[in-house]
Amino acid sequence: MKIFNPRSYARLVYAILWGMAWVYPVLTALIVAVRTGSTFSWDGVLHAWAGILPFFLLFLLHRLPVRLLFMRHRIRVYVLSVAGLLCLFGLYRHYSGVEMPRASSVQERRVPPHGKPPGVKAFPGRDDAEHGRDTSGGEPVAPVPRPPRPSGHGPGHGGVPMPLLLDLVIAALMLGFDLAIALLARYQEEQEKARRLEAAHLRHELEHLKAQVNPHFFMNMLNNIHGMVEMDPAKAQVMIMELSRLMRYVLYEGAKQRTSLYKETDFIASYVELMRKRYSSRKVRIGLELPEGNREHVLLPPLLFISIIENAFKHGISYQNPSFVEIRLRVEKGKLRLDCVNSIHRRPPKEGHEGGMGLANLRQRLQLLYGDGFTLDISEKDGKTYHVNLTIPCEYETDTMHSR
């Protein structure tokens, strides 16, 4: 099923609105040409487009601070950038808004007195009235005062010209509308992401309650503890405590959205220690390296690494042949990186059993949690070793995304 994409709908809204703005002058010119019976003229259309173009360029420039500043919560820098764009827009309109010469109508055309054709009577013009000449040959008349010329975008006196102020108001409203559309699209994306994360969390919680930690592992550990009670009661008690800690973490911490790196590494250490007791053969080598210090303030989704580690023990350990599992978890440059390497021992697949679901579910969960902010590389070298490298961004208690 195709996932709803709010950004596509936002682009569609922009395309419709700007399409209407660009097409409207063409339609108006067509309607005027049809009603008056004259030919279609592009002069008025081009003049209207020249007025729309600065607003369109301002809109395109505004997309950068919205995406790079506002959506990254850099509000002050965004406000300053928008104010700068409006100032540049106002200066451009102020100094480039020279009144375009309009096409003179038939009534406004005047033939120069010395250039009129023979036999043609000069049409009374505004110049005659302004200079006090009676065009009928009578006495001079009082000059008719010329109406005041409307102020344009150019430099004027007495404050900001009204057309420029109107342009700035329209530009500010346009930017505000653009920001509202972007916020609405972001809100819908966050709602969709939260819904998907919640559904994945519930599904993941059910998986943990059933079989996130392999039930066969618990059964085998209980059998080992049962045999250890008579041989080494003290060691059996330690194994029971370790198993209890694992079960407590899976049932309680596994139901949370975030847990601390300290608790996660403690769970991994307990799991690996139990596996050391289970595979106590000298042919099995198990290595574990965990980060030290400042683990309480680093947060991550619980049980994110256990499927990789469990898969390494499941497919990398053999009682008959030398085998190994090397696990290394570290924090470097704001990233949390897990490197897991194990030997490969081919086993015939069990009838009715489908493998590979753990890593597939892990990749899907990582996609929901981090989008494109993670890397998961799985490779097999020379048919002898299996490598899994997982890198996720470090999250801290002060991050806002943990409170969602």
Q: Which structural traits does this protein have?
A:
single chain; 404 residues; alpha+beta; five-stranded mixed β-sheet; three-stranded antiparallel β-sheet; elongated
Explain this structure to me?
By secondary structure, the chain is of the alpha+beta class. It is 53% helix and 12% strand. Helix 1 (6-36) packs antiparallel against helix 5 (162-211), helix 2 (43-68) packs antiparallel against helix 3 and helix 2 (43-68) crosses helix 5 (162-211). Mean pLDDT is 77; it is low at 98-117, 119-132, 149-157, 351-355 and 400-404.
Mean pLDDT: 77
How much beta, percentage-wise? 5-15%
Strand order of the largest sheet: 2-4-5-7-6
The general outline is elongated
Helix and strand run:
HHHHHHHEHEEHEEHEEE
Q: Distance between the terminal alpha carbons, to the nearest Å?
A: 26 Å
- Helix coverage percent of residues? 40-55%
Please state the structural category: alpha+beta
**Biggest beta sheet summary:** 5 strands, mixed
Radius of gyration, CA atoms, in whole angstroms: 39 Å
User: Can you tell me the residue ranges where pLDDT is under 50 for at least 5 consecutive residues?
Assistant: 98-117, 119-132, 149-157, 351-355, 400-404
Query: What's the assembly state of these chains?
Result: single chain
Q: How many helix segments?
A: 10
* Total number of strands: 8
